[in-house]
């Protein structure tokens, strides 16, 4: 067919705008953006015809469908809920610690209008945004003072910048950590203007290594928790207790970047001992920093707890303003920390802790429930329950696994990776993994409503 005839047969803007399913986007997009999308698709179609990718008159239905798809993409939120069936609880790519629905409900009420974020209602004047949780943090950790910034990386940067600028910070060679996302202790030191003074060796550092490094130039001793790796075998590091005494002897602040920041002992869940924030304070650390969305199970934030005299220096530092937390975080942190007043509430109401605390038997029950629900529908899979191992994630307990059960899907027709891809493209994407060439849905990270959704959605596959 003659190209000009084909080109002329394409519906024009006005005809397309009259289509009900296209027109309904006008409200959300306004006519300018709406026309822009249509024009764009029309141009694409025209150039396809000219470049001879299309030989015939484009089907009108197909054209409208193509426009609608573009419009949907533009109007739907790009960030969406996903179902985490990987079993990795603090999955950094999936937003780390999940926040409970009840907390979100309360949080919405607090932040949707105005709040006393920085207003002291009792005194009737300006207040501090930390005031809503600093006493709680002190009560829970035994520290004298507390504050919070954007994340733990920010907390470490602030501590170093405020206390170590143009001075030396003594760090063990075994603790020069790189965590994900380009956060390396030596780089953060450089950024903060602190001079790194490495001591000891990769596997062994002794108290006297620290003491020998102390000079007029020393600004601090920093202990970094090696949260995401383990040096095994012939190793030695110096406990906070001894470092704190050393710091005291020479009048040097001793700081700890604890990473995860647990407030409850994790041994009860088959995990090795992870130093708690309270233990660090008890041992004499002057300042301790830790994350809000790792094992604490709250929003992204970086907590700093410790001695008042150092906290006051941090609070006055210009970086504090740049790194400050927002009102959502302040509200969510308060709600999270309040749960810890009674540890049973923390374990019941903070989703991440609840998932860690699930026993193998709990997960077996859940896996059986999901298996049954799936078997009641006609699915193109064979469904069974099998043991699997979950991970805490977020760089915590890198070598440990939580034993549990998951639902295994086996398909004769489809390859594992193809099913994973298809599940990631569902309306509520399901993220899962392959185990021995089979799909495994680890129920440890699933809520009851996630299971309902999985059953509903797998029918679409
Ligand atoms: C995770 C971690 C950090 C960074 O914490 P974010 O809250 O992710 O910024 C810093 N130090 C250590 C040791 C960590 O494990």
From TrEMBL:
Gene3D superfamilies: 3.90.1150.180, Type I PLP-dependent aspartate aminotransferase-like (Major domain). Keywords: Cytoplasm, Protein biosynthesis, Pyridoxal phosphate, Selenium, Transferase. The keyword NADP does not apply. It holds the Pfam family Se-cys_synth_N. Its EC number is 2.9.1.1. Its cofactor is pyridoxal 5'-phosphate. It comes from the Bacteria. The modification N6-(pyridoxal phosphate)lysine is found at residue 294. SUPFAM superfamilies: PLP-dependent transferases. It is found in: Cytoplasm. Its main location: cytoplasm. It catalyses: L-seryl-tRNA(Sec) + selenophosphate + H(+) = L-selenocysteinyl-tRNA(Sec) + phosphate. Pathway: Aminoacyl-tRNA biosynthesis; selenocysteinyl-tRNA(Sec) biosynthesis; selenocysteinyl-tRNA(Sec) from L-seryl-tRNA(Sec) (bacterial route): step 1/1. Transmembrane segments: none annotated. One of its GO terms (molecular function) is L-seryl-tRNA(Sec) selenium transferase activity. Converts seryl-tRNA(Sec) to selenocysteinyl-tRNA(Sec) required for selenoprotein biosynthesis. This is L-seryl-tRNA(Sec) selenium transferase. It comes from Muricoprocola aceti. The lineage of its organism: Bacteria, Bacillati, Bacillota, Clostridia, Lachnospirales. The gene is selA.
